[in-house]
Fold these 4 entries.
Entry 1:
Amino acid sequence: AGFLLCSLLLAPHCTEVAADETQPEPKTPCANWMGGAPGYPGHNGLPGRDGKDGKDGLKGEKGEQGAEGPKGDQGEIGTPGHEGPRGFPGYPGQKGEKGEGAFVHRSAFSVGLTERVPHPNIPIRFNKIFYNEQSHYDTSTGKFLCNIPGTYYFAYHLTVYLTDVKVSLYKKDKAVIFTYDQFRENNVDQASGSVLLHLSTGDEVWLQVYGEGNNNGIYADNINDSTFMGFLLYPDQD
């Protein structure tokens, strides 16, 4: 009986002790518990979903200017813009070189005969005026008087009839050129000549028949003309 009583009293205690050996006490400072070795890290989880866009932040400060890029292709020509306002007058330019004078020197004449030449060895007086605006040709003397020094052109075209013609152009009492035309029976011929001359103020130029009286076959009528002309090409620079 005593043994059974002791067994009954000790049985729960033994069961509790066995239970205590299999179930460790909670980790408390008083339990004198020692933890086990750390476990291995788990695998990385899947990425989460993108979050919502946040609000725009404050505008940052202006950055430094970057390097200049390469030149682009030329663009198409645009439409013309509106005319801008009129600008201010510019500064005066440099003084130009001296130009020629505005005054144009003029000296010219063109005259003709109205009748046959009466006498040789004197100036032929052409009294039909085609042009003599400056009056540099004198119909009373048959001479052209130079008023503007320079280079002149003279020419004559003479109708030849009834007899031969020997004519010369004079400058300052000296024959410059000679023209001879031989008359042919029952024919009307032409004699002509031209020359360039330099004249000084006061020089005179005229035409006259030279030789004997039978060489003055210069002729003119209502259908045939004998003419004399001259004009200034260009005046002397000074």
Note: Residues 11-20 have pLDDT under 50 and may be disordered.
Entry 2:
Amino acid sequence: SGQKVCYGGLKHSCYKLAYFQDLSRRVGFEEARQACEMDGGALLSLESEAEQQLIEHMLQNLTKSGSGISDGDFWIGLWRSGNELATSSPCPNLYKWADGSISPFRNWYTDEPSCGSEACVVMYHQPTANPGLGGPYLYQWNDDRCNMKH
């Protein structure tokens, strides 16, 4: 239930994209994280602009393949735990990579993260949505409620 693509020479040499057109098969953040770990991997940490662009190209190739892919955001491995809200750090600084990466790279959509009850992060993939103030909802990041199905 996913497309696995491997590259030679990169630090993270394999990626697996799982996209479910059937809404009933989409899962919350924790379920997605567990599925990746059961598969021997981790939810994606995007550690550079180059890696972000690589994933964007992979998603573009997936949509070109005629698989009928439509709107549906993708969970990535960035999140914040609710008990950190009591600290004095600004909310955007509280987001951490689930796999322990310390990369500071971020690709937030305009006015994100909105914080509040939204603590888990998706990469936007809404090709049919009308663009907002930050442009099309494609590939930038947004914090969302962790129980949302993506």
Note: The domain at 2-144 is CATH 3.10.100.10 (Mannose-Binding Protein A; Chain A).
Entry 3:
Amino acid sequence: PILYSYFRSSCSWRVRIALALKGISYDLVPVNLIKDGGQQFSAEFKALNPMQQVPALKIDGITLSQSLAIINYLEDTRPNPRLLPQDPKKRAQVRMIADHIVSGIQPLQNLSVLKQMGDKKMEWAQTCITSGFQALEQILQHTAGRYCVGDEVSMADLCLVPQVANAERFKVDMSPYPTITRINKALLELEAFKISHPSRQPDTPAELRA
């Protein structure tokens, strides 16, 4: 497998966690979203992913984009360890939390949107993340065990950790979100989350390395 990734991309991080958890080795091709006006806009990368976004994963003779589509494919083809619970209600809760983050928070504060915001980048990102986290904190109070849904790591957790990292980058006050904070801390202790961390990627700038 070949993963096209950017160290700081939260969508790429989700997939890196999934690959790590499932023990899938891969080659990483960095796509720098800032350099050269954004390497994702090159003709070569557009041919690979017409949406001109990371991640993209070449695997089993196909090329997939969109982090949840990639994670779902890995789940279908390499089911151990499981990232979607067998119980239909828990499975629905995992998908709900994942969608809440990947549709309701992350796209509103990603690079392409922030470029449009001029001087209000920080303020805009904080507003989007805060409103999303207020809802997420309430949801997690009903679903969480050690992790987002019960005590098993799921697709929801793969979405949560990168989004908390975004919140910290945009200086969001995390004190109103004790459940999110507690789950994030527990997940960051797991090896798959450590090795996939933005501070430990081949394309991480020296000053941001762990």
Note: The mean pLDDT is 96.
Entry 4:
Amino acid sequence: QMPGTARHDREMAIQAKRNLSKTTDPVERLRLQCLARGSAGIKGLGRVFRIMDDDNSRTLDFKEFVKGLNDYAMMIDKEEAQEIFRIFDKDGNGTIDFDEFLVTLRPPMSNARKEIIMQAFRKLDKTGDGVITIEDLQGVYNAKHHPKYQNGDWTEDQVFRAFLDNFDSPYDKDGKVTMEEFMNYYAGVSASIDTDVYFIIMMKNAWKL
């Protein structure tokens, strides 16, 4: 686990649960319900939608949308679901684009935060192919400090894999982390950190940027 992330994750989940009782905005309520599950919460919902998108259209109709929310155990009544669906069905054709939906659901981040996240991603993506893999991590992330490596439980590759799993989509851990997955993860972490300055310091320390 990278420095400080587990703690931020817990803080963010607690904060999200607390804010849930205060907000009436349906999109914000859905966002907070996802974040209450930690940084990977929004990604998890995306994964549920992806499974349901049988025809690979990357769109959902209302029935699929509600089923996805139910499968992911989101507490949302039908009226609220309809309201959210209407907000995202901009052209009123009865379907929503779920990539757009997930990007909007992601907690908003300033450009300064996005920039530092991209810097960290580029540093980790040593081969520069837009995906972080075990091969990329070998020169950047030192597995030897990991307690499970030190006590002989894990090989170096297992440490790398566990590290990648933090950022990977929760139900679809393929050992590859895309820019979008990395950004989604940090949008979650970012939600628990009030100031840009603190977020940037945390990222710089964590990734030695």
Note: The mean pLDDT is 84.
